[in-house]
Design goal:
Elements lengths: L3 E6 L6 E7 L5 E5 L2 H9 L12 E6 L4 E5 L4 E5 L6 E5 L4 E6 L7 E4 L9 H4 L4 E3 L15 H15 L22 E2 L4
Parallel strand pairs: 3-10, 6-11
Antiparallel strand pairs: 1-2, 2-5, 3-4, 4-9, 6-7, 7-8, 8-9
């Protein structure tokens, strides 16, 4: 499949961006059923971003592929715990957008719900990994798959990006590794 650029952003249209070079080669299509992804969507009142069994569809790629072009002031972040993932969303309409680990790992999982103008399934390719099915609201008929392949692809992209001129760019962290907006911590314990 050829690479293409996709519009990315929130439901109300105030926050917009472009994810460049989208293709199965440059990212991984994943379904995650973990309780944390479900809690993120529920906290935002964005249950619509999950499938009927509580799954979140993601396209995992490099943060350097995302350029925020409009409404950057709407970008907000939360963490379920002090050491949890950085979960980015649009504060204007509570659209969940991206999950990141931190500044050091060149990784982002973009929620397919944040691609408002296209059915991205044809562009990102088939689901490569399905995880945390035991946490699905109804695990009947679900089967975990692809965890090792997903991890290998994440690490491979991370390592290759370290050798690219723009591979370390991210719209989420400053050059000294701090989040560009202060994350709200939901459970500080």
């Amino acid at each position: 499949m050829a690479e293409c650029d996709l519009t990315f952003g929130c439901q109300c249209g105030k926050l917009r961006g472009i994810v460049r070079g989208v293709s199965p080669r440059n990212g991984t299509h994943v379904l995650c059923y973990c309780v944390d992804c479900q809690a993120f969507a529920r906290h935002l009142g964005a249950e619509w971003a999950m499938d009927p069994k509580g799954g979140t569809a993601l396209y995992q790629t490099l943060p350097s592929r995302l350029e925020l072009t409009q409404g950057v002031e709407q970008l907000a972040c939360l963490r379920l715990t002090p050491k949890g993932l950085y979960r980015w969303y649009a504060s204007c309409c509570n659209t969940p957008l991206v999950n990141t680990v931190g500044a050091k790992l060149r990784f982002m999982g973009t929620l397919l719900a944040a691609y408002p103008d296209a059915d991205v399934s044809d562009v990102i390719g088939p689901v490569v990994a399905v995880g945390n099915v035991e946490d699905a609201t109804s695990p009947t008929g679900l089967k975990a798959k692809g965890r090792m392949k997903m991890v290998a692809q994440i690490l491979g992209r991370h390592l290759r990006a370290g050798f690219q001129r723009d591979g370390r760019k991210t719209p989420f962290f400053t050059s000294d590794g701090k989040a560009v907006v202060r994350p709200e911590i939901l459970d500080p314990s």
